[in-house]
Amino acid sequence: MSKGWFLIPLLLLNLNAQAEDWPGEQWSSSPPPTGPAIEALEQYAFVPRDDATRQGIRTDALLVIQDGRLVYERYAGPTDAHTPHLAWSISKSLLATVFGVAYGEKRFALDDPAARYYPPLERHPGMTLADLFHWASGLDWQEDYEYAPLDSSVVAMLYTRGRQDMAAFTAAHDSFSPAGQVFRYSSGDSNLLAAALENIVSPSRYADYPWTALFEPLGIRHATWETDASGTFVGSSYAYLTAQDLARVGLLMQRDGRWGDRQLIPKDWIAFNREPFARFQAGQDEAVPGGHWWLNRAADPSIRPWPDAPPDTFAALGHWGQALYIIPSARLVIVRYGDDRDGSYRHNELLKRAMAAFAGTVQP
Amino acid sequence: MRRKVLLTLMAGLLVALFGWIWQERVALRAFPDIISAYTAKEYCSCRYVMQQTADYCRGYVKQSVPTSDFVEAVEAKRVTVSGLGRSHSARWIGERQGCRLEP
C-alpha cells in the first residue's frame, strides 16, 4: 500500500515531462484530422495547379505544428518532405534568429553603431544595428522585384551590379532620411546585418555560425545558406530548409527562444523581434515590422494586418508566398511554402481557416 | 508655325530622353544582364539545392523575357545561360553554400 503512495509523485513528474512535446530526429505526429474546417483550409490552399499560366494560389507545402506535435502536413507540386525549399525573405527572420544566439553570447548591443562591425558604413555613423533590424537604415533603396527591374536595388544586388559583394553595394547607397526615422523595407539592410555578423561572431566562426548556433541545436541536418562571392551570407534571400525544419525554428520562436531545457536565445531578444517598430505607419507594408520579423499588431492599436488571426500572431514572410506563422496564444506554428506568381494569396485567409481548423476554441 | 512648335517639342523630348538615359546609365548598362544571371542562378539552385528535375526547373525560372542559349553541365553542376546578348554562369559549390553566380 505504501509503495503506491510513493509512486504518485513520480507519476506526476512523468506526466509533467510528457506535457511538452519537442521534435527529436522526427516530429511526433498525430493522426491526420478530418472535417469541414480542414476541407475549407485545403480548398483555399490546394487548388488545382496550372503550371502553364502559373496563376492562382500554388501551395508547395502546408504544415501545422500544435503543442510541439505535427498535426497536419501536405505537399503539392514537386515539393515533398525532403525538399529544402527556397525561403526567400524568410531568410531575413532566420538571420535575426541567428543573431539572437550571438546576442545571448553578449557579442553586441542593439544600439551599437553598425559601422563598428561593418566599416564601409562609416559614411553613416548614426546607423545602429537596431535601425537595420527595423529596416530603417534611411538608405535610398528600391525593393521592387519584378515590376520595375531597371530601378530595382534588389535585382541589381542579387543578379548584376551588387552580386559580388551585396553589403558593399548596399552601403554605397545614399541616404534619403536619417537612420531610425522611417521604415523602408530593404533587402540591403538585411545583408548589411549579414556582413556585420562576421565581425560580431569573429571571421573564423562566421562561415559555420548559422549551423553551429542555430541549425544543429535544433536538430536541422540539411540547411543551405548561399553566400555572395565575398563570403557574406545572402541574409536577405537565399536560405533553404525543408518545411519540417523551418517549423523547428517556428517552435523555438513560439516557446520564447527555449529548445527543450536550453534557453538558446534570450527572451528579451524574442521580445525585440516581436516589438512593433514605433515609427511604422499604416499602409507602408502588408504587415507590421518588428525586429526583422512581421507582426499582426502595431504601436497604433487600429492597425491589424490580419484581422482574423490573434493579435499575437507573428511571421517570417518571403517572395512568392513563403510564410512561417507563429501564434503563441493558440500554440500553433504554420509553415506555408508556395510558388505564387500573381499575388492572389492572402495571409489573413489562410490564417483564418487554419485557426478554424486547429484552434476552434480560441477566438481571434 | 505649327512645324516650329512640333520641332521644339521633339527637341525637348529628345533632351529629356538623353537626360534620362544619362541619369540611368549605370542601371541601363546592367539591365540586359538580369535575365541570364537570374535564370542561371535560380535554375542552378532549383536543380542542385532543391533537387528538382530539369523539366520542372526550366519552367520554374521562365520569365517573359526569353533566353537564347542554355547549357547545363550536370557533372560540374554548372549552368550557363544567354539572353539579351549577355551570358552568365552559376555553379553549385557545396551542400551548405548552394549555388553562386560566377564572376
SS-based class of chain B: alpha+beta
The rounded distance between the terminal residues' Cα atoms of chain B is 56 Å
Q: Which fold name fills CATH's third level, the topology of the domain at 22-83 and 242-359 in chain A?
A: Beta-lactamase
Shape call of chain B: elongated
**How much of the residues of chain B is beta strand, in percent?**
15-25%
Radius of gyration of chain A equals 21 Å
Q: Give the termini separation of chain A.
A: 49 Å
Please tag this protein with its features:
heterodimer; A: 364 residues; alpha+beta; Beta-lactamase; seven-stranded antiparallel β-sheet; three-stranded antiparallel β-sheet; globular; B: 103 residues; four-stranded antiparallel β-sheet
Topology:
The complex is a heterodimer of chains A (364) and B (103).
Chain A: H1 2-18, H2 36-45, E1 59-66, E2 69-75, E3 85-86, H3 90-104, H4 129-133, H5 153-159, H6 166-171, H7 187-201, H8 203-206, H9 209-215, E4 224-225, E5 239-241, H10 243-254, E6 258-259, E7 262-263, H11 267-273, E8 288-289, E9 294-295, E10 314-318, E11 322-327, E12 332-338, H12 347-358
Antiparallel strand pairs in A: 1-2, 1-12, 3-5, 4-5, 6-7, 8-9, 9-10, 10-11, 11-12
Helix pairs in contact in A: 2-12, 3-7, 3-9
Chain B: H1 2-23, H2 25-30, H3 33-48, H4 54-60, E1 69-73, E2 78-83, E3 86-94, E4 98-101
Antiparallel strand pairs in B: 1-2, 2-3, 3-4
Helix pairs in contact in B: 3-4
Care to describe what's here?
- The complex is a heterodimer of chains A (364) and B (103).
- With 364 residues, chain A is an alpha+beta fold.
- Chain A has a domain at 22-83 and 242-359: DD-peptidase/beta-lactamase superfamily (Beta-lactamase), CATH 3.40.710.
- Helices cover 32% and strands 13% of the residues of chain A.
- Chain A has 12 helices and 12 strands.
- In chain A, strands 2-1-12-11-10-9-8 form a 7-stranded antiparallel sheet, with helices on both faces. A 3-stranded antiparallel sheet of chain A has the order 3-5-4. A two-stranded antiparallel ribbon of chain A has the order 6-7.
- In chain A, helix 3 (90-104) packs parallel to helix 7 and helix 3 (90-104) crosses helix 9 (209-215).
- Chain A is globular, with a radius of gyration of 21 Å.
- By secondary structure, chain B is of the alpha+beta class.
- Chain B has 2 domains: 1-31; 32-103, no CATH class.
- Chain B has 4 helices and 4 strands.
- Chain B has helices at 2-23, 25-30, 33-48, 54-60; strands spanning 69-73, 78-83, 86-94, 98-101.
- In chain B, strands 1-2-3-4 form a 4-stranded antiparallel sheet, with helices on one face.
- In chain B, a hairpin with a 3-residue loop joins strand 3 and strand 4.
- In chain B, helix 3 (33-48) runs antiparallel to helix 4 (54-60).
- The longest helix of chain B is centred in the N-terminal third of the chain and has 22 residues, at 2-23.
- Chain B starts with a helix and ends with a strand.
- The mean pLDDT of chain B is 91.
- The chains are: A alpha+beta (364), B alpha+beta (103).
- Chain A binds chain B through residues 51, 78, 83-86, 149-151, 155-156, 158-161, 163-164, 211, 222-229, 238, 240, 339, and chain B through 24, 26-28, 30-31, 33-34, 37-38, 41, 45, 49-53, 56, 59-60, 95-101, 103.
